[in-house]
């Protein structure tokens, strides 16, 4: 259990009204506002130089903004836009939530969130909304500079995030799980020759980003690289690609690895050593009704599992991930299935498992 996860929620709100140099990016008391402000200034300086160059040479710029990201700290003016009433309360926000899949319930327990009250939710959600608006303002400044330098109309822009935020939905915060709020990310692609105002419901994944950028540049990708360029799909609706999205997770807060597939309006999640989950995203976008235990969907589950096994061997990949973490004993014992929390604690004390800086510290009895 991570005490810092609840602390982020308890301490959410308005950051101190100071100006820093952005630190190294992360500041547990101030958040990422100064980091994003400084990075935005760098991006604008770069665009000014590009706009002043006489030779028309190709260029590329990556802008890594951190908002919206915990710690949930935001300047006063952004917080005031939303607190306390300009927010949408999360659905299924139960702490604890015994209606969750057993593996997701493990995640909620490991986060150590404890009791989260409605005032606490309103506070942290207002701060998160404020971070989104602050991010929008920074992106707006970059767009304005592109236009000022007469670069906007000839520039491709890909706007995306690396993960979502549960923000109280299903009694969860942060990411890690396969719920839409966590695994779904924004994606906007704009550029010369691309249609505007178009929304595409075809599921895609961020692994497609690299071949898309190479396609924009007129370059070939290496044959062993995964993913498919988004450009044919954007330009003419081409379906010459896999019509599903795939995601996998082998990380913290989950006792067992999971693999997710989204296809034809359904989301299937395979949990190693546990039952799967299945949601109808069209009829149940809040993912409240797990269909995996409904016998009428047995064939659908088999179809998804068969598709999954064309992509990855879930048990083999899970074993490799656990082995890399030292969670498989010399005799092949899977500690994630057999070890109790007190036993794990004792092995950390003994130095069998590495005591990461972020791990909790225990006093000797």
Automatic annotation (TrEMBL):
Domain Sulfatase N-terminal, chain residue ranges per copy: 13-218
Pfam families registered for this protein in UniProt: Sulfatase (PF00884)
PANTHER family linked to this entry: ARYLSULFATASE K
Protein name according to UniProt: Sulfatase N-terminal domain-containing protein
Organism for this UniProt entry: Paenibacillus allorhizosphaerae
